[in-house]
């Protein structure tokens, strides 16, 4: 008779919240990718750092793999547990631990939702500026593990820019405190940045101190209808040079079709191939007048065919819903996702080439483009045609991805801008990073996680 390794975990941590309930295994064993069937050994929900450390040490001794788990809103399968792993959910470690007014930092546990971080920062008259649609469900630990980006990167950068200090438990079970919130710290390698974006392969984030900043002035949202692809970047140039932008996003008519089918209102009478949502500081009448002048200029140039400027917060939110509702509207179709980036100047050439390729090779596919075009980050979702079965559809999409990798390679782009590699993009990592780089990454992983217990099978 084999004894479950969980018996020894239970002996070590009698008080640990541990579940093998079928509903829990299903719930915690998957993320938003929905492609893999969850099959974890069990779910552990530690209450503090000491419990996390004991779990990791136990994993090193028993060889049971760990899948760190946050809000599981990831789209690359990074939090999937399909091979008898122990899922370590940080969701009970979800408190704000402290605010430092002099340093303008907020110290939090990893399981706190991004939205709760926003609210806590606002209570102190400041903001934590990283933001994206999954704010209500995603957790800061997962944001750090994936170096999450989102809709404000154009102004504030990725999660990486806002991590003042990190406590991590490495794959070997050591507790490290990295950087201690120092603004300047020239004492060798900044290990904090190794953990940011490591997708749970080096250890678990168990505490983070986040840098906060001043809230921008009041803002307004502009939605433009854009008649052709080249005009997208012309509009971007005009907006960027004359307005203080905090977001510049685009989506296509196909994206609008799906959000409308999901309940959103059409913004304009006429349909247009492209739409832009941009948010800008509108503290006074001069800034608002400038926004209208930009709109008129774009109209005269033929870069936009229609536009709407938000007149209230409610209207701004409903314009944002057209963009932020896209992922949810597509989810029932289980789309195949690509999340790529190219340099901003290369966006039109890449878009043009990819659209030609897709129309030529896959005319039957419903391809939905949207994303953070102001950062050169485009999301490409392919919706499964009803007549193709799921496995054949994925195989076709993987062929598209291979072709796309080649286009990206020529344009010097990246196969994952902000969603990570996880399981979904693992096969394509070699097209984005050199052999030497991947060997170095493997070496770093072997140092921090010598027994290979942290999220095995993800990344490479
Ligand atoms: C977004 O920008 C997210 O809305 C999700 O990164 C993108 O669903 C997607 O492909
Ligand atoms: Zn995105």
TrEMBL record:
<dbReference type="InterPro" id="IPR016167">
    <property type="entry name" value="FAD-bd_PCMH_sub1"/>
</dbReference>
<dbReference type="InterPro" id="IPR006094">
    <property type="entry name" value="Oxid_FAD_bind_N"/>
</dbReference>
<feature type="domain" description="FAD-binding PCMH-type">
    <location>
        <begin position="36"/>
        <end position="215"/>
    </location>
</feature>
<dbReference type="Pfam" id="PF02913">
    <property type="entry name" value="FAD-oxidase_C"/>
</dbReference>
<protein>
    <submittedName>
        <fullName>FAD/FMN-containing dehydrogenase</fullName>
    </submittedName>
</protein>
<dbReference type="InterPro" id="IPR004113">
    <property type="entry name" value="FAD-bd_oxidored_4_C"/>
</dbReference>
<comment type="similarity">
    <text>Belongs to the FAD-binding oxidoreductase/transferase type 4 family.</text>
</comment>
<keyword id="KW-0285">Flavoprotein</keyword>
<dbReference type="InterPro" id="IPR016164">
    <property type="entry name" value="FAD-linked_Oxase-like_C"/>
</dbReference>
<dbReference type="GO" id="GO:0071949">
    <property type="term" value="F:FAD binding"/>
</dbReference>
<dbReference type="Pfam" id="PF01565">
    <property type="entry name" value="FAD_binding_4"/>
</dbReference>
<dbReference type="GO" id="GO:0022904">
    <property type="term" value="P:respiratory electron transport chain"/>
</dbReference>
<dbReference type="InterPro" id="IPR016166">
    <property type="entry name" value="FAD-bd_PCMH"/>
</dbReference>
<dbReference type="InterPro" id="IPR036318">
    <property type="entry name" value="FAD-bd_PCMH-like_sf"/>
</dbReference>
<dbReference type="InterPro" id="IPR016169">
    <property type="entry name" value="FAD-bd_PCMH_sub2"/>
</dbReference>
<keyword id="KW-0274">FAD</keyword>
<dbReference type="InterPro" id="IPR051264">
    <property type="entry name" value="FAD-oxidored/transferase_4"/>
</dbReference>
<keyword id="KW-0560">Oxidoreductase</keyword>
<dbReference type="GO" id="GO:0016491">
    <property type="term" value="F:oxidoreductase activity"/>
</dbReference>
<dbReference type="InterPro" id="IPR016171">
    <property type="entry name" value="Vanillyl_alc_oxidase_C-sub2"/>
</dbReference>
